[in-house]
Every structure is written in C-alpha cells, then in structure tokens.
C-alpha cells in the first residue's frame, strides 16, 4: 500500500475541470493540492506544492508541450505525469518519449482516471487501450516476425511472462533462476528484437502472437496494477 498522493491538476477552469475534480474526490488517497492553467503556473506551483502526480490536459494550447514537461522532469525527477487528451492528439510513442507515464482519453469512464492515477503514482504505466492498439498498428512494418526473431524456448517463455505483467523477481522465482540470470535473458531478448523497454516487449508479444490471449493482455495494460511495469 502507499500513502496519500498529492495531485496537481493542470487544466482550465471549466466543466471538464469540475468533472475531473469530482471524479478524483471519490478516492481518498488522491489529494488535490492545487490547479494550474498555464505552463508558467505549473512550474511555479509544482515548486511550491511538491506534488507526487500531475494530471495534465494535453489538449490545452497554454501548455507548452513538450517544454513544460521537460522542465518538470529536470527539476523533480520523482514526479509522475498522467496525460488527459482527446483521441489521436498525440501518439503513445510521443508520450513515452517525453516522460509521460500514462494517458487517459476523455471519452473513457471516470473510474478509469482514478485507476490510472493510482497506477502511475506507484511508478507504473497506464495507457488507453486505443492508444496501445494504434501504436501496435503503426509499428507493424518495423518489427520482425516472431519466427524470424531467433528467440530460444527459454527466451520465449520469459517474454510471455513479461507480457503477463510479471517483474524480474517473480520470473526468477517461478523459473527457479537467479535474478541476474533473468536480467541477462531480458537483455538478450531486447537485443534480438531491437527493443528498449518492457512496454515495447509487451507490444511486440501482442503484435507477433506470442501470447494466446492478446485481448486479455491489453485489458491488463489498462486495468491491472501490474500492467506494463517498466523495469529494466
């Protein structure tokens, strides 16, 4: 379990903003400590309030994306950022590249925002299913087919376990192998597939049918506290 999460909202004073506040207020662990409606105010308030999480409306032109986010990461390395936007505003790869740990679409259910906020605050990632599916589709031509990847049976087994949401410790325990051995296997998998993170490994597994239940994995990437846990 974890303590209360101090949240800074970066949005405009509007009906959407009221809806966000109302939605978050149902979860006692989420404490809204302030609101900002411009990049300047975000920088000022984050230094004053020291929030654990910023929920940022990425559709607003007042927020100088990605400069404002780069500033936050430089000055508060532990800060987590959750984006909120309309569909297709920004690609998943763009969000990840700029250090945004998750993104909820405005068309989703209110409880989704609560779940995503709790998950991102724990240092994990949460991306809308639609964003994940778009990412998979856009990268179809860039990934090798599974049969050409030359993964050993053990590497395929570990890849499936990664896609199930297991971290290195759980994988090591299940296979009765050392933690460093698992890290070595994962490094080999990344090298063979041209990947850089656990998130990319999960998406590669889905795209190349390494798993039998891809839709279940996509659901866990949204709804489960162990989805797409990015650890190297």
UniProtKB/TrEMBL annotation:
Xref: PROSITE patterns: HTH_LUXR_2, RESPONSE_REGULATORY
SMART domains: HTH_LUXR (SM00421)
Domain Response regulatory: 6-121
Pfam assignment, any one: Response_reg
Transmembrane segments: none
GO biological process: phosphorelay signal transduction system; regulation of DNA-templated transcription
Leader peptide range in chain numbering: none
Any coiled-coil regions, as ranges: none
Modified residues (4-aspartylphosphate): 57
Keywords: DNA-binding, Phosphoprotein
InterPro entries assigned to the protein according to its UniProt record, in alphabetical order: CheY-like_superfamily, Sig_transdc_resp-reg_C-effctor, Sig_transdc_resp-reg_receiver, Tscrpt_reg_LuxR_C, WalR-like
Domain HTH luxR-type as annotated: residue spans: 144-209
Keyword DNA-binding (UniProt): yes
Gene3D superfamilies: 3.40.50.2300
PANTHER family referenced in this protein's UniProt entry, alphabetically: NITRATE_NITRITE RESPONSE REGULATOR PROTEIN NARL, TWO-COMPONENT RESPONSE REGULATOR
Protein name according to UniProt: Transcriptional regulator
Organism of this sequence: Fischerella sp. ATCC 43239
